[in-house]
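S2.1 Query sequence (NYN domain-containing protein)
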Amino acid sequence: MANSGYGQTANGEMSYMFFKEQQLKEVFDLISDLDTELKQLNIEIGDLQIHLKEPVKRRKCDFDCELVMDIIAEKDNFDCLILFSGDGDYKSIVEYLLDNKKQVIVMHPFGVRGREYNELLARNENRPYLCAVEKLTQFIKL
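Output structure tokens follow.
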């Protein structure tokens, strides 16, 4: 006969049966150690449950602004910009670069490109090159 194992209760629920007192002691010790660690982290289970119900507050990242500022500062040091984002928020900097005779390639996931870029495709000259990343997979050796 097995010392422990999964079984089914009278009402059909699955349960894990402990047959040795040593097994119960090991599980109790693990739970006790976990409780001690949580207390050392100064986290009470009740408080944790309350905080998990509260929304997480996040600060908006300024990465977009920093990237645009760097592009403008360095525009005289490059001829082509490859932007790995389909975010339409970058349309203005792309247009600025095109107006300043720069080549711009916008790499984006298939189907994830801001519609703001569509009006740049109607330009008579110096249009951006828009490319879905998936089109490149045939050229990438794994």
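DSSP finds four helices and five strands in the chain. The chain has a mean pLDDT of 78.
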